[in-house]
Predict the 3D structure of the following.
Amino acid sequence: MGKVLPHITDGLRGFIERQHVFFVATAPLAGGHVNLSPKGMDSFRVLTPTTVAYLDSVGSGNETAAHVLENGRITFMFCALEGPALILRLYGRGQTVRPGDAGWDALAPHFPSRAGVRQIIVAELTRVQTSCGDGVPIYSYTGERSQLVEWAMAKGPAGLEAYQRENNVRSIDGLPTPTTGLRQA
């Protein structure tokens, strides 16, 4: 059965490190759309037992950054798709760290370098909760997709900045996103 813990244990850290996919959820304060996104690409790190971060790539939207800028609330979910069943939820208060922000140089070395990196989302955890996961099917990991990195490489730095200005400065509900690290037009 599930447990609520004060922090990420060594065993849960190992579980997180073995997962190839995780999910991040955020929401605006006043109505609007709940955002739930799958993530992969070896992008999640446990920095301390109560601090986690993930490397975020440029994409079609920037909902997570808009929501944590507005209210800070963030939830991560990991579920065992291989091995023993387990679901792990990490609840916390998030912030966005973009290239050029204070803290970027200390955080960036924790992650692989790749084209298309937009920001690092850091969260201070307020709750760590496990549940059984017995209803989650078993899947086998066969590899990472290459399309996102290939797309970012083809765009190049100037193309990525233009894309972000066009698609990533407001959430789908109109909330602003952090824009530090984007050159001014």
In short: DSSP finds four helices and eight strands in the chain. Residues 10 and 40 are 21 Å apart (CA to CA). The mean pLDDT is 94. Helices lie at 10-18, 63-70, 104-107, 147-167.
